[in-house]
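thread: overnight batch results

M.L. [08:02]
morning all. the overnight job finished for the chain we discussed friday. pasting input first so we're all looking at the same thing
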Amino acid sequence: MKRILIILTCCLVSATLPAAAYEVGDLVENITLPDLSGAEANLSDYAGKIIVLNFFASWCPSCNEEAEHLQHDIWEVYEDDGVVVIAIDVMEQVSLVQGWAAAVGATYPIWMAPDWSLILQFPQALGLPYNAILDRSFEIRYGSMGFDQTAITNMIQILIDEGPTPVYPSTLDGVKGLYR
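M.L. [08:03]
and the structure it wrote out:
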């Protein structure tokens, strides 16, 4: 009898999942979750920012590895360009995540999700770590399981280069601006 060893580089949620509520190109509705201090945090507070949503758990080895990159290569590099990293922990105790954040040196906002329902709304969200990028109007521009630093930084640069979407008066130029 042959034995096959399969090593997973991330943590899968399930083999059979419902279809995601969102697809790339969809607008994300406001998300409200508690942060590490217990205060209510709202996605809407980041209007006009480019948002990297990172779903993680402290027990996930790949999540721990990417936390350093999120801090040093995304958050610290692009914060002055209007980019924010929001990490969303899935189903862990606040005290555990507070200790984890201190240990990995995470200074970006961390929110607490009570279950898997939020992450499963995003495209290709089969497990952890999972990253989505929202543009300044909360449109999903990227979503992928795992951490692909090149893809994430390329998308961030594209969104920075696009700049804020201009608002035009009610004219033909205004209609063109809405559909550019």
